[in-house]
Amino acid sequence: MIGAGINRIDGPLKVTGRAVYSYERQDAGQPFYGFIRGAAIGKGKIAAIDTAEAESAPGVRLVLTHRNAPKQGAFVNKPTIFDRPHPQLTTDRIEYFGEPVAFVVADTFEQARAAAALVNLTYGREDGAFDLANHADQAEPQATLSIGLPGETRFGDLEAAMSAGPVTIDQTYTTPYHFSQPMEPHACLADWRDDHLTVYLATQTVAQNRIALAETLGLAADQVTVDAAFVGGGFGSKLYLHAEAVLAALAARKLANPVKVALTRRQVFTLTGHRPEMIHRVRLAATLDGQLTGLGHDVNLQAAVAEPWIEQAATVARSLYAAPNRLTRHSITNLDLKAAEAVRGPGELPGLLAFETAMDELAYALDIDPVELRLKNDTAIDPELGVPLNGRRLADCLREGAKRFGWDRRPKTPGSRREGDHLVGYGMAAGIRMHFQGPTGAIVRIEPDGRVIVRSDTPDIGTGTYTIAAQIAAESLGIGVDQVTVQLAHSDFPPSAGAGGSWGASNLSIALDRACQQIRNRIAEAAGLGATPNDILADVGRWFPEGVEATGQTIGQADDPNFKNYSQNTYGAAFAEVAVDIATGEVRLRRMTGVFAAGRIVNAKTARSQLMGGMIWGVSSALHEAAHVDPRYGNWVNGDLAEYLMPVHADIPAIETVLLDDYDEHANHLGIKGVGELGVCGTGAAVSNAVFNATGIRVRDFPITLSKLLSGLPPMRTAA
Amino acid sequence: MKAFTYERPASAAEAAAAAVRIPGAKFIAGGTNLLDLMKLQIETPTHLVDVNSIGFDRIEPTDQGGLRIGALVRNTDLAADPRIRRDYGVLSRAIVSGASGQLRNKATTAGNLLQRTRCPYFYDTDMACNKRTPGSGCAAIGGLNANHAILGASEACIATHPSDMAVAMRALDASVETVAPSGASRSIPIADLHCLPGNTPHVETVLEPGELITAVTLPKPRGGLQLYRKVRERASYAFATVSVALIAKIEEGRLTVDRLAFGGLAHKPWRVEQAEHAVAGAVADSIADVVLSGARPTEQNSYKLPLVRRTLAATLEHARAGASR
Ligand SMILES: Cc1cc2nc3c(=O)[nH]c(=O)nc-3n(C[C@H](O)[C@H](O)[C@H](O)COP(=O)(O)OP(=O)(O)OC[C@H]3O[C@@H](n4cnc5c(N)ncnc54)[C@H](O)[C@@H]3O)c2cc1C
Ligand code: SF4
């Protein structure tokens, strides 16, 4: 059962519209609708606010501003991040463009939106710092990253290695702001009754957001219920508690009526989190035969004073290649923008985009095959932690990918292959992604009539968690998938570490399997057998007239010896072919192969979807995606999906996704590791390197848009 | 969105009359542009006159040997019409290069011509924009303007017209037929339909209040090789960075430019008649010199100058290759 590429068990619900998402829940009766009005300045204060017109608009029930918003728990910068309280409308200060300044509740969505525009605001605008490049000199080094790793690691003497050479690369790369932009916008339906708050919330972390909400509202955690039965994508942006949930809850309490809020697409840009812009400096030193003697990665990233998010972008090389002299560092530059957050593949996506492009520069400088260069610097021992790299199959990924892709047919000289109107190039890159483990519980219950119910607060954000939970339980109990009922993402269920960081599936699977094993043992005991009976469900009612249940727990990685004795990662290699229009510089992907090693795969189909989606995300980071801030005002300029470009179907030809399926015994007893974000790791650099191979032009400022290539393309026959 | 009233008249005359009866009324056809703008309160009509039941949904031959395209003909149907594909290939190609299949199914001929700019500051009601709020200033000037106009812009506005279809119609010398609330009808050459921004960027066309577009007529087929090349940052569903509509002919064994119009460069489809027949032998650089004379790019969009040259050269190459095939 584990490994089978079965269809999603909730698929029929989704395609028939019966999977009910937060904003569509009817459980609470007729709700009011809330709409958030955002600030029109990036920094300063509200000089005057007049709500009279909005209050008398048709259907309006409530207008909240900083003047009448209920007192809330103060923000606390807890290291656990997703359980931080997030009070709203607390002051007249404005810290980022679009910050909520008023919240209007009305009978219909349209009334609330129209009335929100009637709130009259006068601002006291102050000069702000809105662009990274011009404030990069204010960067502050960071000792610790948001995920707890050291901000700086240093081994040997990189400077010395750089001056010894003989071949070195020292380049600067910039990666832009990115947004997750899940299909389902951030939404919340809040229902307040009998001193108890129930929120139907689009979230990736049920237990954590419950605490965050309780602390914001001054409630005990058990006064808050969070239900996130269906979530339409998250990609990191729904890990955190955002304004819509807090405002819906405040208004529901005040009005004694359910209130629901969904962000508009433009508000998903202003009111959720972005991946920070980064300036990377990558240094590499190597011998003439391609042995790395030194590697360095410095990252300076945008942050906000209020809530620093220090993305682990310069960690990507720490476990990737051997080299005696190493230096990786992070610093932040505080700007007057919203706090950055985790966006799919935090750390790895921008980090590998820069680092693996630099590796390609080194291969070119050395005149060594880029695959060869990576193989040469492969290592079985983590070069910084000194422990074995379990499941290290980087070399297998590289070799298998090269073979499938036909890497031997690559143009050896950049800019040398022309096909019709196009310059054609091949590129490749390696990928690595840290594997994490977080405390997660699951409960399995078998009813006397043999029904099997599995519960955990881990949400299924569209990745297939319902399905793999059923697969794990079915395998552990020796029953069919269709005999398992999975219930997820409710705060009454055992708490988990949430769905994010590519750890939901492995965390949940381990806990679930343990619960199932306990049940098997109890049944065996009750039946007086040495082993579990073959048909485990047949006689449950006889031995357990009340049914039987057991909970299983996955421990956090800090307490798990596997994470001390081994350096836990997943691996990949990506190969891409691009065609660049010789006249216009338009870059189009022609084909791509990704080979990945991520431990044992629970569901071949959903894992493949994750990896393929991740690869497309990688293409996007190389060629398309960037959110732009106007340095004068601090607003997101291209704040809609017509202008924030990402690939559409026509941009993505056939993509080959290969999983080197293997049981990783050092990960956990099931041999499972995370898959969700591995597809974004290194795939962007494969595309970036293919563009260089096609054109001979190296673009270090991502994404690679046509205007950056134009001046380097061969001259056209523009005369007679 | 502001509350509005709605009606659906059954004839063009009624529609035109309805649009002036209530101040602040607007026509709605496919709604693919207008509704988006209403949700953002960039457009705030008090009353919508839905023109989907007035007829004018057919393509018919004219006495002059051309075609009359009803204002309500959907972009999908227009692009797929066998007569258009055979005799006006540049139009069909331009339309299918725009938007997406779903949008083209809804979008109408008139609505496409009258769609508004995609300038991101126009779309952000927290930003100064002379087009949205006359006199408020132009945030795009001095802001992010990599895809703004390089030709025909003004100190008040540097926005471009986003339509692909209109560029092809400009190359084809189409005329726009209208009916006014008074019942009077007129025909406007497409060259005159759209205005340059000048000091009044909010005035985008010469249409009078309540004047309804009923049809677009195409003159009799010009023949020749008809190409539309749209340059953009992704393969589909993106507006043009630069686009070229070309009708080329072979005369005495040499390629000549019969018609040439550009998108993505100005506040209206851009055609420079002197750049057409005058330049013998279709020399890309000489043509581009004429087209780009007077260009005033910003720092961020100056790449459009070489891009125009190169795209034109490549399109002419294609025409040559097509002609010799
Ligand atoms: C995401 C996105 C991508 C797009 N990409 C492209 C692209 O690449 N290229 C491109 O060319 N277009 C593109 N479009 C725009 C699309 O082509 C237009 O939205 C569409 O053509 C408008 O037609 P409509 O009938 O829906 O107009 P509506 O939205 O109904 O109306 C538009 C305007 O025309 C007026 N109007 C409508 N009919 C009449 C009439 N008969 N007489 C007088 N006034 C009238 C309306 O009052 C309104 O002001 C895109 C749109 C979107 C949303
Ligand atoms: S360019 Fe025109 S549309 Fe854009 S902000 Fe300026 S005035 Fe408005």
UniProtKB/TrEMBL annotation, chain A:
PANTHER family registered for this protein in UniProt: ALDEHYDE OXIDOREDUCTASE MOLYBDENUM-BINDING SUBUNIT PAOC (PTHR11908:SF123), XANTHINE DEHYDROGENASE (PTHR11908)
This chain belongs to the protein called: Xanthine dehydrogenase family protein molybdopterin-binding subunit
Q: Which residues form the Aldehyde oxidase/xanthine dehydrogenase a/b hammerhead domain?
A: 16-127
Question: What's the domain of life for this entry?
Answer: Bacteria
GO MF terms listed in the record are:
iron ion binding; oxidoreductase activity
Please name the InterPro entries in this protein's record.
Answer: Ald_Oxase/Xan_DH_a/b, Ald_Oxase/Xan_DH_a/b_sf, Ald_Oxase/xanthine_DH-like, AldOxase/xan_DH_MoCoBD1, AldOxase/xan_DH_MoCoBD2, AldOxase/xan_DH_Mopterin-bd_sf
Q: What is the lineage of its organism?
A: Bacteria, Pseudomonadati, Pseudomonadota, Alphaproteobacteria, Hyphomicrobiales
From TrEMBL, chain B:
Please tell me whether the keyword Ion transport is annotated for this protein. no
Lineage, top-rank taxon, reads: Bacteria
The secretion signal range is none
Q: Does the keyword Flavoprotein apply?
A: yes
Domain FAD-binding PCMH-type, by residue range, is: 1-223
| Gene Ontology molecular functions | FAD binding; oxidoreductase activity
The record's section on InterPro entries has: CO_DH_flav_C, CO_DH_flav_C_dom_sf, Diverse_Substr_Oxidored, FAD-bd_PCMH, FAD-bd_PCMH-like_sf, FAD-bd_PCMH_sub1, FAD-bd_PCMH_sub2, Mopterin_DH_FAD-bd
Output the SUPFAM superfamilies linked to this UniProt entry: CO dehydrogenase flavoprotein C-terminal domain-like (SSF55447), FAD-binding/transporter-associated domain-like (SSF56176)
- Coiled-coil residues are none
Question: What's in the keyword line of the UniProt record?
Answer: FAD, Flavoprotein
Which PANTHER family does the record match to this protein?
Answer: ALDEHYDE OXIDOREDUCTASE FAD-BINDING SUBUNIT PAOB, XANTHINE DEHYDROGENASE SUBUNIT C-RELATED
What protein name is recorded for this chain? Xanthine dehydrogenase family protein subunit M
